[in-house]
Amino acid sequence: MMTFDSEVELMKVARAHPKAKLVLRVDTDDSKAVCHLSVKFGATLKTSRLLLERAKELDIDVIGVSFHVGGGCTDLETFVQAISDAHCVFDMGAEVGFDMYLLDTGGGFPVSEDVKLKFEEITSVINPALDKYFPSDSGVRMIAEPGRYYVASAFMLAVNIIAKKLVLKEQTGSDDESSEQTFMYYVNDGVYGSFNCILYNNAHVKPLMQKRPKPDEKYYSPSIWGQTCDGLDCKVEHCNFPKMHVGDWMLFENMGAYTVAAASTCNGFQRSTIYYVMSGPTW
Questions:
Q1: 3-state SS assignment for residue 172
Q2: Strand pairing report for 102-104 and 61-66
Q3: Any idea what DSSP says for residue 103?
Q4: Is the pTM of this model over 0.90?
Q5: Which of 37, 63, 225, 226 pairs with 13 at a CA distance of 20 to 30 A?
Q6: pLDDT band at 63 (very low <50, low <70, confident <90, very high)
Q7: What is the Cα–Cα distance from 255 to 236, expressed in whole angstroms?
Q8: Mode of pairing for the β-strands spanning 234-236 and 223-225
């Protein structure tokens, strides 16, 4: 099985793999998503009919429809509309002569606990929409792509502070008395490594401190930087926590999706090492 959304792809499949089972990807309104995908992928409903007719002419079997509402979708109605559009394409396929039996509802499910839209809210609208447009007796097989939802929380990233620099009040331009001493911290991973999610997925990371601050300890507002020579390599700004020292550790949760998978060795720094751990009671 493979996906297509253009006539050029159909022609390539007809030449190279005419027995393939094809899934037509339709576009969605991902304007309210964090990561937009429809700007690159997907066919409109009008184009979908033309593609189905062309596939029939080429004697290529189209077995279903797929869509993706975009990463970090924040609009419940987008899921419902996408499922409705997929149903329209199924009807088009039946009119053309295809027996379509697969629906891929893609991903876009949230991970962070602080997002506005919860996973349960999404399922509360997806399931009724599926029951309406693709009931259990329709014979349609349904799959989804909740990769980020499953994997993100499985990994925690630990970085080591390798340097720090004092920034005086006049350098920050702030009138806040608490910014009289502000430290910039440098750690041994950055946006060209595990933190590429900041650049490519608009992620907002938040460090966890290994040690708890004392009640009377003064807080600082540091910026946290990666180890490369690029001024773009900044992970966190204006994040308050106690004064740290070189050698201390910072932890970042939910770092299992789109992190090490897209990491590079920019400036010669190696990718983060992965350690598998298990709690004592679980073991």
A1: helix
A2: parallel
A3: E
A4: no
A5: 37
A6: very high
A7: 15
A8: antiparallel
Contact by Cβ (8 Å): 179, 169: yes
Contact (Cβ atoms closer than 8 angstroms) between residue 277 and residue 215? no
Question: Residue 68 — very low, low, confident or very high, per pLDDT cuts 50/70/90?
Answer: very high
Give dist(CA 211, CA 21) in Å, integer. Answer: 55
- C-alpha span between 71 and 81 (Å, rounded): 16
pLDDT digits (tens, 9 = 90+) for 90-105: 999 999 999 999 999 9
- State the Cα–Cα distance between residues 140 and 131, nearest whole angstrom: 11
Concerning whether 229 is annotated as a catalytic residue, the answer is yes
User: Which tens digits make up the pLDDT trace of 170-202?
Assistant: 555 555 554 457 889 999 999 999 999 998 888
pLDDT at 279 > cutoff 80 = yes
Give the residue carrying structure tokens 């999610």. Answer: 197
Helix (H) or strand (E) holding 158: strand 157-168
pLDDT of residue 219: 66
For the chain, state the CA radius of gyration: 24
> H helices within 66-165, ranges in order?
76-96, 119-133, 147-151
Interstrand relation of 207-209 and 181-187 (parallel, antiparallel or unpaired): unpaired
What is the distance between the alpha carbons of residues 55 and 61, in angstroms, rounded to a whole number? 7
Closest CA to 163 of 89, 92, 222: 222
* pLDDT value, residue 175: 53
Q: Which helix H or strand E contains 102, and what residues bound it?
A: strand 102-104
Q: Give the active site residue among 35, 229, 234, 239.
A: 229
How far the first Cα of the chain sits from its last, in Å, is: 40
